[in-house]
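Reagents: none. Just compute today. THUMP domain-containing protein.
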Amino acid sequence: MFKPNCLILTLAPEICLKSTQVRIFYERFLKKNIVEYLKFDGVPYSQLLVRSGRMYIFSEKPKSVLKSIENCFGIYKFAYAEEKEIKDLEDLVELGSKLGVEKLNETFAVRAKSYDKDVKSKKIEELLGAEILKKNPKLKVNLSKPKTQLNCILIKKKVYFYFEEISGSKGMPIGTQGVVALIGKDKNKLKKIAFGLLKTGCRVLTVDNELTELAKWNNCLEPKDVSLDEAKESYSLGRIRAFFCDATTLYEKEKIDKEIGVKSFAPLFCILAPTPFD
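Predicted 3D structure written out:
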């Protein structure tokens, strides 16, 4: 019986494409953000590992883990997985075929990724697919558009089996792009801007205008609100990288720029992608 004991997180492609040093930088931020969500919700987990562009969170309650971090930016996909310890390739095929017969139906495909130099990914797919067909001849292989799919990842003497992937919030981990300040009067417009900035990896502050309803995308905290004088001082010290405003006309933007003493960014001049606040 398939008993998930692990949640596999596929990181956003933007992270995986970075150089090793930069990727590690992003992974550390994402790991820290995930831990903040899990601590806030009191979700138990035993271990959080980073391996080859994926994170593995081990927990007896993987569904609770996913529910807690489903809005965490930087995660491309989730998958409920079962970790198994194996002796050899034959053991992997036997364990995987049992799960496959249990969960697969109609047309299927096997996708494998091996990090063992002595065991090729293609070999796993061929042997595992053949054994599943042997145990259930009613199934049919369809490599292009299968209705069901068995995935497995082999790392040393451990294998991870999973069947479905769930989309994450994507984007970049919050904090990786520095701190920015939001200034303006229209809370709905500011929320749209804040959501977009959080998704790009910025940490957001507000200036004399507290915003709510953003905590679930902001590591369970509403953005910190500061005074205009505090924001100006932080900007002069390099702690705030830029100001963003809710202006939709040049007159409004010039008025705000004069108030803060520097040029601000006005993203609402452009067409923004849909946000939860539209």
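The helical segments are 13-16, 20-41, 62-69, 89-103, 121-135, 187-199, 228-236, 250-260.
Action item: order primers for follow-up constructs.
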